[in-house]
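Q: For a teaching session next week I want to show students how multiple molecules come together into a single three-dimensional assembly. I've collected the sequence lines for a complex. Could you give me the predicted structure tokens for the whole thing so I can convert them for display?
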Amino acid sequence: MESERQYIELYHDAADLIRQRSCAVMNAVRDAAFQAFASQGFPSRKVERYRYTDVAAAFAPNYGLSLFPLTSHPSPFIFSFKDAPIDLTPYYNKVADASDGITALNTALAHEGLLIYVPRNHRPSAPIQVDNWLRATAPTMMNRRVLILLEEGADATIVINDKADAQPVSFLTTQVIEVVCKANARLDLYEIEDTNPLCARFSNVYIQESRDCSVKHNVVTLFNGHTRNLCDVYLQGENAEITLNGCAIGSGSQHIDNNTLIAHQVPCCQSRQLYKYVLDDHSVGAFAGKIFVGKEAQKTSSQEVNANLVAASTARMYTQPMLEIYADDVQCNHGSTVGLLDESALFYMRQRGIPEAEARTLLKNAFMGQVIDQIQYQPLRDKLYVKVEKRFRGELEKCEECRLCK
Amino acid sequence: MLEIKNLHARVAGKEILKGIDLTIADGEIHAIMGTNGAGKSTLSNVIVGNPAYEVTEGSILFNGQDLLAMTTEQRAHAGIFMSFQTPVEIPGVSMTNFMRAAVNARRQAQGKEPLKSTDFLKIMREKRKLVEIDQKLMTRSVNEGFSGGEKKRNEIFQMAMLEPTFCILDETDSGLDVDALRIVAEGFNKLRTPETSAMIITHYQRLLDYIKPDLVHVLIDGRIVKTAGPELALQIENEGFDWIKSSLQETV
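A: Of course. Below is the structure for the complete assembly, covering every listed component.
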């Protein structure tokens, strides 16, 4: 419990200050969350869902707690919890899994919440964008809390960017995003991480869908340090759809762990998953995705694909697609592949005069293109084609002003 | 142009080429015929520098340069092109991007600026017409979903774009119907300059009806055992290789 101790002490020291800067709905569950964290600590590698990431090690360094207010692009749909137009008590910390150590710690320490609220049948004309710039002069911990609430028939595109300049300061971010979609809502949620090797990120996303909802979640790890993304989806209304896509690019000694759970709890829902990794150098990737189909969830249609390109013999990939089915009339498939760059394609390109390094870049880029193709929001898709290619060429500028939605 | 001396090569530990001597002068076309497994494809793969093939002995000079010291892409830049027996599909890389990368890499090696996009597309259009290849194939991934004939025609299209001085046609005629064969062969003839040399690997006379070889070589068991004029190809078409094999045994 070495790593945990400093956070327990931190809470004892800072809880009052956090409370003051926070709001009633968050404070109401804060102590209970802290207790949950203090009693269980960080999930160890023995916990199935944390097999591939050493959480305690990532939290071990001494970080200062950031209590700065969150900033976002002005939008009529973004609120601080304090200014929420509705009562958040029925939603806050309800979809999130309170038994998860990271979520518990985030709930205890987050001082401010960001609400994205789209009223009934509203469709924001432009995507809602949230940029998180990691900037500090000393090692810093940020605990981010987001609640996305789409009322019946609402339709929104949300882009969340995590950016960090190339700077000699380490960051630790925890994030919990709760998404509640009411009947017939449609959401495209994009998370783009473009940080640096000194950043550690622990993100837990929880999505709850009612009937006839359609949600797409795309998580792109362009550049990072140590990343763990968890995404849990609960399909609770008939005819709901979820698409989870992931694109992870690792080089150096980067670590990217995506862990998903899709729970089909009612009949006639659809889930699609496509996660692709390209790993170079000494990077490590992990994907574990579980599809759970409950007894009631007849006529479920589910597809899970994890495809990985290991471009260097020193890189490592762990993959674990899982199906757990209790209904008997379902269509589910899952699979994963781990491969090297296609030697015959490399040779073909080189015979045409394309230098080997360029040929490798073209192949990696083509491999990742399949995930980027699925991004609906065209300006973002176009930007990402460019960014991904630059990433493979090692040309990703770490300081460029990134307003993907401009 | 090309001067091969005592070339030995192996693939996956097995010796395939056992001492090839072959000289192809500027502007000459040589046909290589031979039984399956004789080493025809190994010879072409060694010339273009396929990393899967290992040269154990001998030398290849290309316009006086030591070819074996050059990388695959350097050989391409020097003007060597191979039309693949089985063109490779590259999902996710469009023909246009692939061609642009190849053309510009070659220009860079020659110390030229990359082509402007409009100029590049204009050249694409011209060359496409030359080999009668459909525009819609250019927006697809390289060779993906192409029919056998389209793939072979696409090889000749790439040849047109890259303007090589030495071409290897590795069984370009296999899997082609008569019309496709004519288009491919005529495309090649249109692209030829008086200096262009070629090595044509084939099992059949029919391609040689369109592309007249100066010399025909017969490759058996890793060695060139017979060399003669174009009439040799006709004789092989009619009589097979057995008569050559038995004459070999007699000399032994």
